[in-house]
Write a structure and sequence with these properties.
Four copies of one chain form a homotetramer. By secondary structure, chain A is of the alpha/beta class. Chain A contains ten helices and 15 strands. In chain A, the strands form three sheets. A seven-stranded mixed beta sheet of chain A has the order 12-11-7-10-9-8-15, covered by helices on one side. Chain A has a six-stranded parallel beta sheet with strand order 3-2-1-4-5-6, sandwiched between helices. A two-stranded antiparallel sheet of chain A has the order 13-14.
């Protein structure tokens, strides 16, 4: 049923994803968007035109936004490099904080943010992994928990971005932490969710290549990579990540259990339309992750805000976000060094 | 971008669909739900519990709701038998009116409502055919207009309700106007939209049967029927309607043109999940029309309210709703009499 | 297991389908192709080059082929106009006869052939409806007989030929009996097989148009048509037939029963390959009925020849082929006259 | 067109696959099955009942079969452990030899067989990888060669056997060489075919587990494994292999290129039937590799025998089979040791 009240929110960051998040927040009943911050002049122009008329106060200083009277919650949607700092500041000011993934591209920095949040258990702090709120992934989880496919054994996760001929992602690569940290982190989060969040990693291997953008090599990055994570439980996860998809955004997952298999999006399509013409029988794909996950973001934000309204636990435990970053960083390192990374049974690295 | 203002709305009818519509209106930025009417005591209870706390005034008298200060618009979601009267009253009071389909189960009554609306062109009056706002049907229309499949020739439309073992639809049949008027009207609206809204009907044939509910015969209704509508343009439409689907709601459409074909939902599924187990490889279907079209209702309401806010034409011309009712009634009659119904080139009946 | 012996066969007709059938017969263990007849000079050239070296005697006179020493069986694959005469001659000479569908484009002629066969029960005479031997249609039948979907109520059958820009089918139309007799007869056969072979027709309606080939009208034919057959059992069949498919051969069927639905080929594709490129995610379709049904012909021939080898009943009762012709002719007439055709409970026509 | 002559063939091995191969050979026009060998008493019984009546001489001594007058060709379908010896003997006797994969579970033994064949270039010697003759995999290759998806970069191959509750595969594991050698070898062959047969391996990593059959560990085997092969070209292949599929045989492949992607069998189904019932909308899967590939075996045998008849090169160069064995053995070793295996640019192992 309808929400009993709206949470007063300030959003930090009004780039591609920030503007999307602002629009989403304006359209869900649990949210009252009252403030927005961005350091970027052209984004400020956009905010003054589009947000101010709706009663949103616009800031070019994050600290000032935090001072706004009545502000309860911050949504951090800035570049990854400043996530950690902004989350810490929000916590320090006693705000609930939702942050885009990843907390940081470094495991230790991520851990320090989680530690800070742990000291203020009254605050709802969550790192956004919107796939968990997508109806397909969520139904997979529900059916898995019902025992439909027995014990899960092998996870496969693929994040496939449509090729962006502008080369935007090359410049982005210097800050992103690499393709595994930037993209596969969603698959890692799902793998942990499905295989068991307390799983201990035994080994990590990965290889990658620059098939379309040699310039990525300068940032120790690649445009196609595959990796394997082995757990002490005997379970395993296999990942593929690429920036080279031709038809659209192709994020695919399957999970094989002892009694069955479930898959998500092995037949990609944006809607129920099929075209039968000289090219064959064809579906069109979503072109961006937002085409694919717009509804998931809204569901995620509503679920998160409900925890503030009702003072219930956040749906994604915050500490898990550190584990995902740790694994992503190790996959990236494995690509760059060619070394298979090993861990002991406490998941302490041994090589 | 976000809506510049919210339209003050009263909803009439709080049954199954009315409650859904109320929730949808509470969650879209263009709407300000300020009033609700229902004559049913248990629905009043629901409204007092769920809507009043959110600032919605609850009425057991439709006329009184129309008097509410500041009310701009009425959403009619009552039983079909009172649609026409309530729409007329709303128009008389100078309100914008959105009505659930059909306007009436009679062609002449429907026409009188359209005539009344035509006299107040400043009011936005629309009959809801939410499928036009579904992303799949809408994309089919856009690609058709782009010429992707040449000239459209044959339309197929199927409305397949999941079998409801409660037999609810048997009692409902005495008011519904029959299965073609109740269900196929959506397919008729799509057929006219795709084949051309000015198409003139040449003949109508149909047959039907009571395969699971013999009691429907008492209300001159059936639970399965097929029909053909032939147009003077040489185009044709084929319909199948059933209340006997086992897997879920299965609404399917295809359109064959001189250069290609497009289809919607020939592979029904509620999301991107597939289960691979002892039953095979399977998708789950939406269980109700609401599972399938929840997002379309929201899109439709937003598009309709935007026309009030911006004073632009409604997206579905109101007079078309009469044509759909006329065709639906003739299909129903053709089932009941066994006669093929014929029309002259002005669509005046000749037998 | 392998066949214990090979049946000596003569084939009549070496056109498009006849050559295919000859190749199929050369490749199945039950067949020994010993003779071939065609009246067409260029087909005789083909036969002398391709069949004679393999020990097949080639004839330009059907009667002479029938005299060949040791000949046991004739496969009639000539033009429809001579099917009946050649089957009758084969029966008169005591040969087993397999004939391509339809026996004739006329119901009475078809009946006379069935009557002649009935007088020689020791001969295996069968009209080919290869779809019954396709693994998908056959499995549908098996599961239907197992009760998987309860009592069958509504059949939908579509034969969609890929558009042939050569216009071959226009000339062909003068002999074919019309699109329902030429193409839909397969769907009619399936409808009777699934709904019950003893079903009595109550009414037949149909409409059609010449969307791409106006010249068809000269032969009382159309290139797109839809029709409905109503049975006294309360069951019904809906047909769509077209020569205008853009992507390939698209023969689709579904059957709705009281407890479920089964469909065949709603997602057409020639194999398991999918292409993900700028056109979307796409499958390719079979381009001709032979691409779709090559394996079914081989299965059909083997099953038919096994009945000769083992002296068992033919898998498709011969008299049923007359019923299919009767219904097909009535659908064609309904298109041409615009009249709904009615029958009494003995399936005697009443209008 | 029909084959101009039949090759006289002896088959070695009449187990599960051998009996299938015998039947296939009896049904293709290029083959004349004249001899069969098996050392197993119950298989001899089967052969005397089923093959002898058709003119096939049955042997319990392989060497004696090789002496049969007029024998031109041997099909080796025995257990893997004797493949190499029987192929060598066939070559020594001047017979054309088709052998089931793998030549051997050891790279050096495989190489010795290839070397022996190389000395008799007049003999057609081929190792069977029937997937290359499957219409889907073959069309992928044709479209790849046409440049449809640009340069291939990443291959994914999965062999998923349906879970066999009899545990047959546990006993089989002591001879099979392990799951990568037994099953993944088909995927390795495809990967080399698609990515380039002269590709040089840079590294191999793999992990595996015994999820359903702990007893496999005794034979250094697993029932689920994933592996990565990295090539010096920058290309890579990712494999998944399992004996735990619930729905059926699920062999899936995709290939991502710089301009597009192609996939095979991501939507598994045995035919075109769909069932819509209380379990959802579902397809049934092939239950065994033979259900999936029966037609491919026939196509493969015909293509191979054509090379004998026409003295043309065999379609799969024999030496490639050694490379596939080498990679399969390394994947298996990587699972067992946990070590990432490295190669220099001549593909000589460096660790």
């Amino acid at each position: 049923m309808p929400s009993p009240r709206r949470v007063s929110i300030g959003i930090a960051g009004l780039g591609r994803i920030g503007q999307r998040h602002a629009r989403t927040l304006l359209a869900i009943p649990q949210a009252n968007l009252v403030a927005a911050f961005t350091p970027a002049p052209h984004e400020l122009v956009w905010a003054r035109e589009n947000l101010e008329p709706l009663g949103v106060t616009v800031y070019d200083d994050y600290d000032k936004m935090l001072e706004q009277e009545g502000l309860e919650c911050v949504f951090v949607a800035t570049v990854t490099a400043v996530h950690a700092e902004q989350v810490l500041k929000g916590i320090a000011k006693g705000k609930h904080v939702f942050t885009e993934k990843p907390i940081s591209t470094k495991e230790d920095v991520s851990q320090s943010v989680v530690d800070a949040a742990a000291k203020k258990p009254e605050l709802k702090v969550m790192c956004g992994f919107m796939r968990r709120f997508d109806s397909s992934y969520a139904e997979l989880k529900a059916k898995l928990d019902d025992g439909l496919i027995g014990k899960p054994v092998v996870y496969y996760g693929q994040t496939g971005d449509k090729r962006d001929p502008s080369g935007f992602f090359v410049q982005y690569a210097q800050f992103s932490g690499g393709i595994f940290v930037d993209c596969t982190i969603h698959d890692i989060d799902l793998a942990l969710w499905y295989l068991g969040e307390n799983n201990v990693v035994k080994s990590i291997s990965a290889v990658g290549t620059c098939a379309i953008e040699p310039a990525l090599a300068e940032h120790n990055d690649v445009d196609n990579a595959v990796g394997i994570v082995e757990f002490y439980s005997g379970q395993m996860a296999s990942f593929y990540v690429t920036r080279m998809m031709a038809a659209g955004q192709e994020d695919q997952t399957w999970l094989v259990g002892t009694e069955g298999k479930m898959s998500v999006n092995l037949e990609p399509r944006i809607n129920h339309l099929k075209i039968h013409d000289k090219y064959g029988v064809r579906s069109l794909e979503p072109q961006t992750f937002f085409d694919r996950f717009a509804a998931s973001f809204a569901t995620e934000f509503a679920a998160y805000l409900d925890t503030i309204i009702n003072d219930t636990p956040v749906p994604i435990p915050f500490k898990g976000a550190v584990h995902a970053v740790k694994i992503a960083c190790a996959l990236q390192e494995a690509v760059n060094t060619g070394v298979k990374i090993l861990y002991d049974e406490n998941e302490v690295r041994t090589n």
